[in-house]
């Protein structure tokens, strides 16, 4: 994924000044940035090249950011960080539901964006552990493969890390704050909707019935826990 | 709005009506009663006196100028008509009762042994002794009696009449007249009472017709005062009260129009601020993106370009903070700010706030463990960061944060040990862009921090207050319900 801290970033942003500013700032932090001005161009680019992370503005002419997000997700498990307007809560929720891993609020401070990019790209530590079996679910911590009834499940990076974090200590309750710190590397005051949205996506992929989850269970008022299955 | 302790309109109207009625009835009935009573008594009196005189004619001539008791008895008997009592007196001698005379048919009283000279008033006796015929009304054993006294005169030719020394007194009962008069009085009372009752009913009807609209007016005015600007009164009839109601309605309509206009203007102003903030965001996003680049390159730039670059970078950050705060407060204004509550350990939350900003060493904390609350940690962090930041910037150390709780509320107190806030400033510290002094230079922060903090507290249905501690220093107190909303984020 990342080689020597240099990552390839696809920036999709329609405003030329913002696009140029972010391109400058990210380049200065050592990223190789490909900046495009529309969702169509971004999706075109993704067909031929494979960036490490996508930074996506939600307000785009033509196909909007949510649709771009869904199309990228349908094809690949690339981390997606969305740029949202401050306070547009519905956008945040819709963006997370469309499959974004994280979001930053405009006007963006480049060091915040940089920290988010590093967080989503951080290598998942590969353990030497045995293959774990939890009912129908098998988790290969070394190969980073999750399978359900033997069929591999395609998980986005954040979903995978959330699952690994939770299943690492089955039965233990993780508060949203703890998960935000360990999975998203946000501080204590991260947005807990990130966790909730990611849990929803994860459930849709690994549970038989999302409304009655077995693997990722809600502990009302406290957070989430894995199992007991 | 408070009612005065004077009697109400209803009581005043009622008493006026009653008083009027009583006075009128008393005047009319009283005058009639007195007139009728006098007439009745006068007639009875005249008739009795006339009867006594005419009977006395029969006594003359006297057989004996110095009669004994028996003769006096005959004289006395002669002047009565059988129903009156009489006595004849000659110096110390009085008439004997005529034996066998039946008791007069007066109502229910014991039979009288003639007329007792003791019941004859002294004044009357003197008058009669002076040679005049006289009468007087007395009450004898609870019964009105007319006593007529007359001297018997000796009349001789060519000589003036002289008193014979014999006096005759007749007691004529006025009981029938008293009954008529009592009946008259009873009728007067009855009619007066009926008139009073009628007057009270009339007064009640009148007060209802007046008080109903007045009460309605009062209720409407109260509602209007409470902000129910759509309050109107139904106008009935065309009297003065209807005029008042119409005036009230016109005033309320006018008021409503003005308030709506003001509200619209205020909403426009706020929307304008929100729009401007949103419009500023895109260029600011570009600026903010390159501010870091500029900042890092500043060291390598020759002066004054380096200083200029740092200035641009710093002010871009300030501008970003200001625009973010403006957007935040316009979200409160438009009511779209929402809570994302969670079960939170309060001590952990306070420590995280301090830790995230590197304040842990500077701030004394008193955080009892195990206090949890259902609230939006990010919003509470915004409040705390603002309060502690202000205390560190504007107050004197030590700055302390204390946490207290009961079963329903948690309360967080942030205080410094500086001189405290000016009393004139205290009510305004939560105002937007409030500056303690007009000359004060632009301070750090947007000037919206405390306004946003208070809005965040209110969003939790809590409150944020400020006061000066008795021993110096400003104390900000944040009080939040332990369960602001019963929503589950999971």
From TrEMBL, chain B:
Cell compartment(s), UniProt: Cell membrane
Major localization listed first in the record, in broad terms: membrane
Catalytic activity, EC: 2.7.13.3
GO cellular component: plasma membrane
Keyword tags: Kinase, Membrane, Phosphoprotein, Transferase, Transmembrane, Transmembrane helix, Two-component regulatory system
Top-rank lineage group of the source organism: Bacteria
Pfam families from the UniProt entry: HAMP, HATPase_c, HisKA
Name this protein carries in UniProt: histidine kinase
Species of provenance: Microbispora hainanensis
